[in-house]
Every structure is written in C-alpha cells, then in structure tokens.
Design goal:
Layout lengths: L2 H8 L3 H30 L7 H26 L4 H25 L3 H25 L9 H30 L3 H22 L18 H20 L2 H32 L4 H33 L1 H20 L6 H27 L5 H26 L7 H22 L9
C-alpha cells in the first residue's frame, strides 16, 4: 500500500488526527531548534569550527536519545501520556527561553550546551510518549498504516522546520542574538503542540492501570537486565540482528560523512566564510531530504522485487561506491549529489531494519529491541564524529576518511550477506 493511501486511511480517525497534529507541530519546532544549535555550533562567523567541535555538537544533539532512551519507557508507562504531551512543551519552552537568555548574556558556551541537552532530554520523553500513544488512537487493523506514515511525516516536518530556520537565520543573522531568536521561535511553536494535545481526553492515551506493575525504582534497575535479555534475543534472530547491524554501520559511516562535509564546507570550499559554508551545507541537507523521501517510495517496490535480504546490501554497496567517487575529487558539486545518494541508501536500510525487527522479534522483546535500536542509531553517529575529530585535518581534505566511507559500506554489505545467507544443509549419510 502506498504512503498516500496509508495516510488517507488513518486520517479518518479524529483522535489520530489530533495526535498526528501534535507530532507534526513538535517536529517542525525541532527542525528550527536543531538548525539553530547546528548553525551556532559550526557556522558562527566569530567561531573557529574544528572536527572536535563537530563531535561535541553531535554529542549534544544525539547522546540524550542514546542515554535516556532505554529509561523513558519506565515513566511513560506510569505517567499520563496525554499530560506528558501537554506539560513537556511548556518545560521545553521554558528551557529554550533560558538557553536564549544565556546566549544573549554571553555566558560560557558549556552552560548553553547544558541547556540544549536539557531541551533534548525533555524532547526524548515527548517523542516516546507520542509513540506509546499511537495504539490508543487507531484500531489494530490500521496500526501498521499509522506506523508507516507518522515517523515519515514527522521527519519531513523536521526538514521543513530546518528550512525555515535557514531562512530566519538569513534574516536575523548567525550571531548570538539571531540564534536566540530562533530558539524563542522554536519554543513558541513547540508550545502550540500542547494546545493540540489538550484537545484529547486525559485518559485517552493511557497507560492502563496495572496493579502488578513494579515500582519505578525497581523498573529502572531492571532496564539494564532487560537490555541484555533483548540483545540476547536479537542475536537469536539472525535477519533482524543483521539488518539492525547494517543500520548501525550506515549511521557510523554517515556520521563520518557529515563531519567531513561540515569541515570541508567550513574551510576547504569557502576559505572560512561561515555564511557561504552554511548555505552549502543547506544544499546538502536539502538533497539528502529528497533522497530520504524517494527512499520511502522506492524501498517497498525494491524489497518486493529483490527481497529485503538483497536490497539492504545493494543499497549499502551503492552508497559506498557512488558517494566515495563523488567525494574523492573534493569538488563542491559532489557533496550534494553524495548527500542524495546517502539519503536514499540510508533511509532504505532504516526502513528495512524497522520492518525486520517488527516482523521477526517476539512482541515481548520488541520494546527492548527498539531501545537497543535507538542507542545504536544515535550512538554510532556520535562515535563516528569522535573518530573524525582524530583523523580529519583542519581543512577537512582527508583521503583516509573518504576511503573509510567508500570501503566501509561494501564491507558492511558483504558481512550482512554472509550473516543472513541460510546455512547450506549438510547431506545426510
């Protein structure tokens, strides 16, 4: 079934439309926020961006999802999810105002990044509550369609929010005051999602009362044990584990490509012109978004034609060979095209990983499996940025980094094929 058909089906539900609207507004706001932080961290005219600064910025943007991810479920299964959706935007808006004030006051940057981390921590609770609420607003027979359209639409709105952030930055400027205005706008927009959430009944989104549910303190202690059990269960399901591993490999290599692109644009292509560098990266983000959108249409067709087990290594191998060839000349035109290719391949692998985990993993282990998934998805990205901080030269022109990207994808494809290939049966004597 197509994306448009899935969307048309699930939009018939009034409660789904309200939850869907809450997601779209919040992720639109998140796009503005992420662009503001990224622009301030990497493209402020008065700052010198290094690979180490890129790694630190990525850690701020993504580590809360890896660290908090396994634990948020303990609380969203105990607190009113509708109330989380109402209160979290208010808390986040207050934190964004505080972060904007810190910027204007000229406080040391670590204090600003601490405020940004707090914002992202609140956002992690909010997004987890959205995901857990979905089964309460659609009937079981439409849940798969709802799962297909909500993350895709939310990510698309994040791209749109980032685009608006770019336009606003062109108007306000890229200094502390311009970034502070972006943060305030993001907070106001995010607050609108609370107004939408308030239209839903308090008890609509759960959780249901369970007298046998363990206390929160005990549940937190059990998280680590649960993750170990989830990992053990995943390893017993070869296809799901291999596809998740392919996704993790892509995120690592994509993180390295991101760090490489930021430094190349910041210094090698633009000779230190921060505004020109940001415009160049904006084009790469836009082409990546187009590739991401195309993958949504392409992947269902490709997996039906080639099977999931063949499409994943095809996408990985193509990503490495084509992007490597495009980046290697170190010409500015090659990076937007490489972003488009990596957008298609990366989102294709992610869709396949989502499908493999949902299809193969037993329901009792599904939550823990996706906790591991989130940790890998964001943690590998940050790990790649950390490696980039070690190997990238000041201007970003690194043949070693390109070689890692170009060869890493085909190697990941080969390992994936070896893992998912069924064992050859031993002939009976």
């Amino acid at each position: 079934m197509s994306f448009v058909a899935d969307l048309r089906i699930v939009l018939k539900g009034r409660d789904f439309r309200r939850l869907f609207g809450t997601r779209l507004v919040s992720q639109f706001s998140d796009g503005i926020f992420q662009f503001a932080v990224t622009g301030f961290a990497f493209f402020s005219p008065e700052k010198q961006t290094t690979a180490l600064a890129v790694a630190a910025g990525m850690a701020v943007l993504f580590l809360p999802y890896s660290v908090l991810g396994p634990f948020v479920g303990v609380f969203i299964d105990r607190w009113s999810r509708r109330q989380i959706l109402v209160i979290a935007p208010m808390v986040r808006g207050t934190l964004l105002l505080a972060a904007a004030a810190l910027l204007v006051a000229g406080v040391p940057e670590p204090l600003f990044y601490a405020a940004a981390l707090a914002v992202l921590g609140v956002n992690r609770f909010f997004m987890a509550a959205l995901g857990a609420s979905l089964p309460h607003v659609v009937p079981p027979e439409r849940l798969m369609a709802a799962n297909a359209v909500t993350p895709t639409s939310g990510t698309a709105m994040t791209f749109v929010g980032a685009g608006l952030g770019f336009l606003l930055r062109e108007t306000f400027g890229g200094g502390a005051y311009g970034t502070a205005l972006l943060l305030v706008i993001s907070g106001v927009v995010f607050g609108m999602s609370a107004l939408i959430a308030r239209t839903m009944e308090r008890s609509l989104l759960g959780p249901s009362y369970d007298p046998d549910r363990p206390q929160a303190r005990e549940a937190v202690r059990n998280v680590v044990v649960g993750l170990v059990d989830g990992a053990r269960h995943l390893l017993g399901h070869r296809r799901a584990a291999a596809t998740m591993g392919a996704m993790a490999a892509h995120r690592f290599l994509y993180g390295m490509a991101t760090a490489l692109g930021i430094i190349l644009y910041r210094y090698y292509f633009t000779d230190g012109d921060a505004e020109a560098a940001l415009r160049g990266i904006g084009v790469v983000v836009a082409t990546s978004g187009v590739g991401y959108t195309l993958a949504i249409v392409l992947t269902p067709w490709a997996t039906e034609r080639f099977t999931l087990e063949r499409w994943v290594p095809m996408a990985l191998a193509a990503a490495g060979l084509v992007s490597g060839a495009l980046i290697l000349p170190f010409q500015e035109w090659g990076l937007p095209v490489a972003g488009f290719v990596l957008g298609i391949a990366g989102q294709s692998v992610k869709i396949c990983a989502d499908t493999a985990v949902q299809r193969d993993v037993e329901d009792a282990y599904l939550g823990r499996s996706f906790s591991i998934y989130d940790m890998l998805f964001n943690g590998m990205y940050v790990l790649a940025a950390a490696l980039s901080a070690v190997i990238l030269p000041p201007d970003g022109r690194s043949y070693l980094a390109v070689a890692i990207i170009a060869l890493g994808y085909p190697v990941a494809a080969l390992i994936y094929r070896l893992v998912v290939r069924p064992p050859v049966p031993t002939p009976s004597p």
